[in-house]
Amino acid sequence: FAVLLGFYSNVFSLIPRRQTEKSQSSAAHGLCSFGQILLYGPHPHDLLACAVTHLPRRVDVLVMTPWFAPVVWDGTFDSALLDVQFRNTTIGLTVFAIKKYVVFLRLFLETAEKYFMVGHKVIYYVFTDRPADVPQIALQDGRQVVVLHVGNYRRWQDISMHRMEMISNFSRRRFLREVDYLVCLYVDMKFSDHVGVEILAPLFGTLHPGFYAADRQSFTYERRPLSRAYIPRDEGDFYYAGGFFGGSVPEVYRLTTACHQAMTADQAQGIEAVWHDESHLNRYLLSHKPSKVLSPEYLWDEQMLQRPPLLRKLRYVAVPMNHTEIRSR
Q1: Where are the domains of the chain?
Q2: Quick check: 230 and 275 in contact, CB under 8 A?
Q3: Contact 323, 3 (CB under 8 A)
Q4: What is the pLDDT, as a whole number, of residue 128?
Q5: Strand 189-191 with 71-72, pairing
Q6: What is the Rg, in whole angstroms, of the alpha carbon atoms belonging to the chain?
Q7: What is the model's pLDDT at position 26?
Q8: Which uninterrupted H or E stretch holds 96?
Q9: Under CATH, which architecture does the 2-327 domain have?
Q10: Bridge-partner residues for 294, per DSSP?
Q11: Ranges of the chain with pLDDT below 70
């Protein structure tokens, strides 16, 4: 992750996008205005109501997409209210600790227990080729670690791309029966502040911190028309990070299945997308708009990027590491 940010940081410019002050009177169409939040029921697609909040509006950042999906920043949600709405929800977290990446698991899990979905039922699904090296950590009530033994691949790019295939397969085989939502994360990270049910929606993606305010011409989409990940230069909404996405299990199953099929088709043509599974994720989210978008608070690298004033919280941050050493073992 840090290597990617090192490339992206030279185009990073945190200039808040212009946002309208006019409230959208769209509750009758199932949408909430800027002073309200969406309340989902026990089933991911059940929209219960638009609830008025007393939170001060953020006028320094983009808080809603052009298709009226909320963009989640500190100060735009009421944790106490949302915790009640999601009190009977079980969240699955997928993380891949292949080869030497298993060394990041302890810090990842320990900080997750401190900050991730506190008070809610969580299943950590750890995909690894080294199950004996998965650390034992103390867990809160109602939470568990499930180790899924998988093979490894010679190149880190192959591991990254096969992540979509494995999430798809296990979604069909067990996740659909065990959890309501899936959150798919990178392992070489740590939680550093609250990450709760405010992120949950049928389908969500996270703004890549290197491209939050960049023009779409600067996005490093796959530009070769022969690839299934291809996005023309005059198209694109945001550049989404591959290290933090998710949604309801059926939606994540559809996303990961589509990305895996697209990568398989590319492979048959001798093509590998420029940023591998992240390129295909961006192609999918362009065609299937996420119902919620997470701000760069939810994925950041303090070593590569200077923290701007609009980032009140850093919730999930990269862990410094030697990528060459880790990926070669």
Answers
A1: 2-327
A2: no
A3: yes
A4: 96
A5: unpaired
A6: 19
A7: 36
A8: strand 90-97
A9: Alpha-Beta Complex (3.90)
A10: 72, 206
A11: 1-56, 155-158, 160-161, 322-329
